[in-house]
Amino acid sequence: MSKKYYLTERERERERERERERERERERERERERERERERERERERERERERGEREREREREREREERDLRERERETRQREREREREREIEREREREREREIEIEREREREIEREREREREREREREREREREREINMKY
Fold it and tell me: Is the residue at 123 inside a domain?
């Protein structure tokens, strides 16, 4: 083998070795890039999970607000209904009081009328008495 051929062969071998090394380096770089991509994907997934959690918490807060608002509206409705019932009861009591006063007034009027009737009856009785007296006096 000639020296020239040997050097060329060695150079070709070194060149192939350098090429294999460059290929291994490119492969390591591709692997690092795949790892960075996997890390970015994990980060995106963590971000999506965080956003899902935040949306879920917001939905829960909204649901709690709606439940509180509903309970408050129901409480206010019950309170207004109790107030209306108290007002109706007060009005019924006033009506019963007016009816009692009317009945008392009617009874007083009936009593006055009975008293007048008794007075008229006494007057008629006195009149009859005077009449008898006159008759008796006329006989004598």
Answer: no
Query: Which residues form the domain of 7?
Result: 1-109
Coil, helix or strand at residue 5: helix
Q: What is the pLDDT of residues 54-79, one digit of tens each?
A: 999 999 999 999 999 999 999 999 99
Q: Map 26-82 to HEC letters.
A: HHHHHHHHHHHHHHHHHHHHHHHHHHHHHHHHHHHHHHHHHHHHHHHHHHHHHHHHH
Report the alpha-carbon distance of residue 120 to residue 15 in Å, rounded.
154
**Domain-embedded: residue 25:** yes
- pLDDT digit string, tens, across residues 76-117: 999 999 999 999 999 999 999 999 999 999 999 999 999 999
pLDDT at 11: 85
Quote the CA–CA distance of 25 and 96 in Å, as a whole number.
Answer: 105
Asked if residue 137 is part of any domain, the answer here is no
